[in-house]
Structure formats: structure tokens, C-alpha cells
Specification:
This protein is α+β, with helices and mostly antiparallel strands. It has 2 domains: about 100 residues, no CATH class; about 60 residues, Alpha-Beta Plaits (2-Layer Sandwich). About 30% of the residues lie in helices and about 25% in strands. The chain is built from 7 helices and 9 strands. The protein has a 5-stranded antiparallel beta sheet with strand order 3-1-2-5-4, sandwiched between helices. β7 and β8 form a beta hairpin. It is globular and about 60 Å long.
């Protein structure tokens, strides 16, 4: 999910709780990797839990700043529901994440799904630096040695938008998946 939509979600909640990520605990052994943000519409819940669960209570502004920094690092933002349509949390995933590994690296079980957008490169603006390739968790970006720029495969793109934060020339934009003839029906 693009950072703009994450910010819209955070604007609607009263409380944000950052807590240790179960995925990183299992895959890396890091007991304090804090990439998961629990959301609540009731600030009394976050206040009641306090420090007893190793939780950090964040303001909306602190949460947005932290997630923007994760966006710059190339972590993919995913929304987790505990009973649809209610959003329970925002996870920030990379290749250390169990959900990522189960869905993409091993292809066992689809836990993460494509978003409503796909990324595209303005070929006239792209200078071929390849920074975006390093950000893409899905391998959707290729470099053309002939044209000296990158190309995004809309079929492989998940629409997370983290490639944009690595582009220092603003050569990458998101557009609606349904309007892209190649990616419209790939979910």
C-alpha cells in the first residue's frame, strides 16, 4: 500500500502502538525489531495496555514520521485486518518478514496481495541510476542497458510505491491498476 494511503488510515485513528514484530523474531531472532503498528479508534485501549506488553504508544505524527522513514528504507506497507473491514494494524515488510517469505519467496500461501496501483517510469526523466531496483521487494524493475533507464513490469508490481522514495529525479509515479491494460486483472 502506498505511503499516502497509510497516512490516510493514520489520520482516522486515535491511538497508534508500535510493537515488536513477530516475523522478525522468528526469521532473524531480533526480539525488538519494531515494524508493526497496531491501530485503535479508542485511545483508552492503548493507554490501558501501557508498557506491560513492550508497546510504544505513538502520536499520529510520530507514527507517520516513523513509517515515512521505513518507506525510504524500502519496506513495503501492508494493512492487516482482524475482522474485515476493520484495520487492526500496519506492518512494514521486507525479505525478513514471514508473510513476505510465505507469499513470495516460497509461494506457499498468499498472505500479501497486490494494491490498487502500479508504478510506471517516465523514461525521459529516468537517468538509469538503479536506486529504485534496490528498493523493489518484488523484482518488478529491470534495467535496460540499451536505453540506460529502468522499466517496471506492471504484471509483477504490487503497487506499494517504495520505489518512488529511492528515485531522486521523481521519475516514478503510481497510477490505477485498473487503468493499466497489462496489470488490470492481476491481483
Amino acid at each position: 500500500m502506498p505511503i499516502e494511503e497509510i497516512e490516510q488510515i493514520l489520520d482516522r485513528v486515535e491511538g497508534v502502538i508500535r510493537l515488536p514484530c513477530v516475523c522478525r523474531r522468528v526469521t532473524t531472532g531480533n526480539m525488538n525489531a519494531r515494524f508493526y503498528y497496531g491501530l485503535t479508534l479508542d485511545e483508552r485501549l492503548s493507554a490501558a495496555l501501557g508498557d506491560s506488553f513492550s508497546l510504544e504508544i505513538l502520536s499520529k505524527g510520530e507514527a507517520i514520521t516513523a513509517i515515512r522513514n521505513l518507506d525510504k528504507e524500502g519496506l513495503v506497507h501492508s494493512v492487516w485486518t482482524f475482522k474485515t473491514p476493520y484495520i487492526g494494524g500496519i506492518c512494514n515488510c521486507d525479505q525478513d518478514c514471514m508473510a513476505y517469505r510465505v507469499t513470495h519467496a516460497r509461494g506457499h500461501y498468499p498472505v500479501m496481495f497486490r494494491g490498487e496501483y502500479v508504478a510506471a517510469v517516465d523514461l525521459d526523466t529516468c537517468n538509469g541510476c538503479k536506486n529504485c531496483m534496490r528498493q523493489c521487494q518484488y523484482g518488478a524493475i529491470r534495467f535496460s542497458a540499451t536505453n540506460k533507464n529502468v522499466v517496471i513490469d506492471a504484471r509483477a508490481c504490487f503497487g506499494c510505491g517504495v520505489c518512488r522514495s529511492a528515485c531522486h529525479h521523481d521519475a516514478i509515479a503510481l497510477h490505477a491498476r485498473l487503468e493499466d491494460p497489462v496489470a488490470a486483472n492481476i491481483w
